[in-house]
Structure prediction request, 146 residues.
Amino acid sequence: MKKIFFGLLAGWLAFNVAAAESEWLTDLSKASAHAKESKKLVLLDFTGSDWCPPCKALHKNVLTSKEFTAFAKDNLVLVEVDFPRSKKQSAELKKANAELQKKFAIDGYPTIIVLDPDGKELSKEVGYGGTSAAEYVAKLKKQLNK
Prediction:
């Protein structure tokens, strides 16, 4: 019985540590402050998380992969800007997301925008065509070297 308990406890702890490593924020101003402080890039994911097939594929194949989360832990501050159809959001979050959508002229989902620590836009990519996690991380590494 103790072995089962400790096995479950270890699994739960490992899951929580992995989840913390790839924490997604929803507040760009807080993310920007953290990026400046830690000298990391900001990655904005404009998504329709509960209805957009390419968004779901990007999330499944790249954004939750071991390669991406390991890279993100040391190099990125992650921001999800979500436009769900079924998932509940506060009025404040909806308003903030709409303002970001307008500011960055988002016209398709998913859109990934990478900002430098000072908030300068480095890249903007609309859509997801099946790029592997390794290829995606390689592209992001190039952004770091600019």
Notes: The chain is about 55% helix and 20% strand. The first strand starts at residue 24 and ends at 25. The radius of gyration is 16 Å. The chain has one domain: 23-144.
